[in-house]
Amino acid sequence: MTYLLQVDFKMDRPFGEEMSKAFVDLAKSINDEPGVIWKIWTENAEAKESGGVYLFETKEDAEKYLTMHSARLESFGITDIRGKIFAVNEALSLINHGPIK
């Protein structure tokens, strides 16, 4: 079974192309985190919100990443970090073409 981690938080900037350039090294480093299968980066410039949706191999990997990532975000001065972990129903997700692998 795989696990989905959803994280979001308030962030003033950067967004769009500026965000893509600013966080390329961070994006590459996420691929080296234990259990990460993929990440989708999310942003809403109008609401000043950012975050991501991740797929992990195990719940434990998702929990460890959330703890580490929350501490990293807090070191950048970001507060009110919301993180939720969900078990993925693979049978139903496959019907809807969910990228679960």
Overview of this structure, please?
By secondary structure, the chain is α+β, with helices and mostly antiparallel strands. The chain has one domain (3-95): Alpha-Beta Plaits (2-Layer Sandwich), CATH 3.30.70.100. It contains four helices and four strands. Strands 2-3-1-4 form a four-stranded antiparallel beta sheet. Strand 2 (36-44) and strand 3 (49-56) form a beta hairpin. It is globular and about 40 Å long. The mean pLDDT is 93. Keywords: Monooxygenase, Oxidoreductase. This is Monooxygenase. One of its GO terms (molecular function) is monooxygenase activity. Pfam families: ydhR. It comes from Neobacillus mesonae.
Largest sheet: 4 strands, antiparallel
Number of domains: 1
In total, the number of strands is: 4
* Spatial ordering of strands, largest sheet: 2-3-1-4
| H/E element sequence | EHHEEHEH
Summarize this, please?
Keywords: Monooxygenase, Oxidoreductase. This protein has one domain: Alpha-Beta Plaits (2-Layer Sandwich), CATH 3.30.70.100.
List strands and helices in order, with pairings:
Layout: E1 3-10, H1 16-22, H2 24-30, E2 36-44, E3 49-56, H3 59-75, E4 82-87, H4 90-95
Antiparallel strand pairs: 1-3, 1-4, 2-3
Protein name: Monooxygenase
GO molecular function, one term: monooxygenase activity
Organism: Neobacillus mesonae
Tags for this entry?
Alpha-Beta Plaits; 101 residues; alpha+beta; 4 strands; 31% strand; 4 helices; four-stranded antiparallel beta sheet; globular
